[in-house]
Amino acid sequence: MRMYDIIKAKRDNKILTEEQIKFFISGYVSGEIPDYQASALCMAIYFNGMNIEETTALTLAIRDSGDKLHFDNIEGLRVDKHSTGGVGDKTSLIVAPVVASCGVKLAKMSGRGLGHTGGTVDKLESIPGFRVDIPTDEFEKIVNKTGIAIVGQSAELAPADKKLYALRDVTATVDSMPLIASSIMGKKLAADDDCIVLDVKTGSGSFMKTIEDSKTLAQIMVDIGKKAGKKTLALITDMDIPLGRAIGNSLEVKEAIEVLNGRGPEDLTKVCVELATNMLFLAEKGSEDECRQMVIKSIADKSALNTFVNMVNGQGGDGEYILHPEMFKEASFSMNITAPKSGYISRVDTEGYGTASLLLGAGRNTKEDSIDYAAGIILHAKTGDYVNEGDVIATLYTERKDAFSSAGKKLLESTHIADEKPQLRPLILAKVQ
Ligand code: URA
């Protein structure tokens, strides 16, 4: 078998066989297939798609590309959640400790920033000392002992996704249904959780721009999860507007801490409460209403915040930063962006906001780029708000002063102001199960 023929077949819109897909994944992981051939295939998949059989074969090949987790000492069901990616989407940082503080175990494998979206692993690494590169046996030990850990993909677990994820990030091949579905479900199945809640984002800041596409993606992933014997459901949530007010790694950690202290932004809190409620429900902790009350209580009595502190300490981080978020280093430079005219913020291109944050240093342009953890944006006005000409609508933070002009321009281009107050759609748009 030759990789050339596999690329050519997909380029010509043919259906790939399970053997071809397995050949690609094992060859790419072993290093026999180089990045340039893998990116050519990803681009062909981006343009020509994959049917459900190909997508399932790709998912299983990613799952089987490394070890699987085993949690022999854990009683009860283990649950996980995964987002398809958004701007200002720090829900995992909140939902994971909430659910763990309600007595459900969570062994989470998360990703780095991808395209214009941020990643949980980069956000966690903005906490001094926090380790995400934990070998499988230690990961299992931490979860067995403390009930929660969030790690990045190691060389042992779903290594195919680790390599493909980094490659797609810099080759404009992220927003493809089969590549997203197999990436997410490949690693979720390798982690071998019992229950999976998927947060499928929809709108201008997500990889799926329409509700129809988001529902299709959600159904593909739910079906793959169920076929593999996992209790799986998906919430379709709004990403036409950034979630919360912070975009960028340590800025988002600080906002997540605000939510865990019970004083976070309403939209972010609501989405987190619904995700956590569904996770507890799938883990059979009670009726949906009972689960919602448990979630609300775990925030109100700070048990979720304490679980977050324990998790950070358990993974080598300094938990004092969670209790005293003012300890996070601030960016050296900041700049306010003002409204060019009066009116309602009628619409924002949320992907443009994500790109502005990348330009400030919060993400990568090449696989080797390092991240400026303090870089990003704080939004002072969001869709639906009335602003007067000259009002500050956002503050940009960076270590690179020369990034202000391109990032500021991108943010302003992405912000639309009109006389009419816009109708906002619900945050939770559908449930797919
Ligand atoms: N999250 C993932 O883990 N993979 C994707 O491809 C997109 C979002």
Briefly say what this structure is.
By secondary structure, this protein is α/β, with parallel strands linked by helices. 46% of the residues lie in helices and 15% in strands. The two termini are 38 Å apart.
Structure report:
The chain has 433 residues and is of the alpha/beta class. The protein folds into 3 domains: 47 residues, Up-down Bundle (Transferase, Pyrimidine Nucleoside Phosphorylase, Chain A, domain 3); 245 residues, 3-Layer(aba) Sandwich (Pyrimidine Nucleoside Phosphorylase, Chain A, domain 2); 89 residues, Pyrimidine nucleoside phosphorylase-like, C-terminal domain (Aldehyde Oxidoreductase, domain 3). The chain contains 17 helices and 13 strands. Strands 1-4-5-13 form a 4-stranded mixed beta sheet, sandwiched between helices. The radius of gyration is 21 Å and the shape is globular. It starts with a helix and ends with a strand. The model has no long low-confidence stretch (mean pLDDT 94). Bound molecules: uracil. Uracil (URA) binds next to helix 9. The site of uracil (URA) has 9 residues, from helix 9.
Present the secondary structure layout.
Blueprint: H1 3-11, H2 18-30, H3 35-48, H4 52-63, E1 79-83, H5 91-101, E2 106-110, H6 120-125, H7 136-146, E3 148-152, H8 159-169, H9 177-191, E4 195-202, H10 211-227, E5 231-238, E6 246-247, H11 249-260, H12 266-282, H13 288-300, H14 303-314, H15 320-323, E7 333-338, E8 343-348, H16 350-362, E9 376-379, E10 386-387, E11 392-398, H17 404-413, E12 415-418, E13 428-432
Parallel strand pairs: 1-4, 2-3, 4-5
Antiparallel strand pairs: 5-13, 6-9, 7-11, 8-10, 8-12, 9-11
Helix pairs in contact: 1-3, 2-4, 4-9, 5-11, 5-12, 5-14, 9-10, 12-13, 16-17
The structure holds uracil (URA).
